[in-house]
C-alpha cells in the first residue's frame, strides 16, 4: 500500500486494507509494460527472454516469473510484464534496444491498472459469484492467469497460491468498484455465518 505522504498515489491509496479471516489490500504500484510481438519468431523470443531472464509464456493463460518480474500471456501476440517501478525505464529501454527493427511494440501502462490481493478460505466462492470464469482448483491454479469479467469490470485474475490467494488487476477507473464489491461480499458472508470472522 503506497504511503500517502509520497507523491505517488494509487487508485486505492485512501482505501483501508481489510484484515479478518479473509484479507484484502491494494499492492504497491508496480511497473507495467504491454508487449506485442510474434511468439513464433525465435529472434523475438530470444530478445525478450534475454532482457527479462524469463521464458516467454506461449501457452494460453499462463505466466512466468522470477524474483522480480512476471510475464502474463494475454493473447497469441500480447503479454503483460510487471516489475518493480524503479526497473521500469531501464527494462523498457533494454527491450526496445533488443527488439530493434522487429515488428514488435513495448508500451508503458503502469498508471492504467492497479492490483489488489484477496486471500482467505472462501476467496474462490466470493470471486466466482461475480465472474463467469471456472476457477475451481483443478482448472485454475498457480502459474495460470485469465482475463475475465468481474461484475461490470474487466480484470486480469491469477492465483498466487493454494491458500487460496488471488490477485486481481483492474483499470484504475473500476478499482474502487471491485474493491468495494470484495469487501462487502466478505462482510455479508461473515454476517450470515458462511465465513467466520
Descriptive report:
The structure is a single chain. Helix 1 runs antiparallel to helix 2 (88-99). The chain is built from four helices and eleven strands; from the N terminus they run E-E-E-H-E-E-E-H-E-E-H-E-E-E-H. It is 25% helix and 30% strand. Residues 1-6 have low confidence and may be disordered. It has helices at 42-52, 88-99, 123-128, 172-191; strands at 18-19, 23-26, 31-36, 63-65, 70-75, 78-83, 105-108, 113-119, 146-150, 153-161, 165-171. The radius of gyration is 18 Å and the shape is globular. The strands form two sheets. The protein has a six-stranded antiparallel sheet with strand order 1-2-8-11-10-9. A five-stranded antiparallel sheet has the order 4-5-6-3-7, with helices on one face. A hairpin with a 2-residue loop joins strand 9 and strand 10 (153-161). It is of the alpha+beta class. It starts with 17 loop residues before the first strand and ends in a 6-residue tail after the last helix.
Report a brief summary of the structure:
The protein is 25% helix and 30% strand.
List the helices and strands and how they pair.
Elements: E1 18-19, E2 23-26, E3 31-36, H1 42-52, E4 63-65, E5 70-75, E6 78-83, H2 88-99, E7 105-108, E8 113-119, H3 123-128, E9 146-150, E10 153-161, E11 165-171, H4 172-191
Antiparallel strand pairs: 1-2, 2-8, 3-6, 3-7, 4-5, 5-6, 8-11, 9-10, 10-11
Helix pairs in contact: 1-2
One letter per element, helices H and strands E, the order comes to EEEHEEEHEEHEEEH
Shape: globular
The percent range for helix content is: 10-25%
Could you give the distance between the termini? 23 Å
How many β strands by DSSP?
A: 11
| Rounded mean pLDDT score | 90
The portion of residues forming beta strands comes to 25-35%
How many distinct helices? 4
Strand order, sheet with most strands = 1-2-8-11-10-9
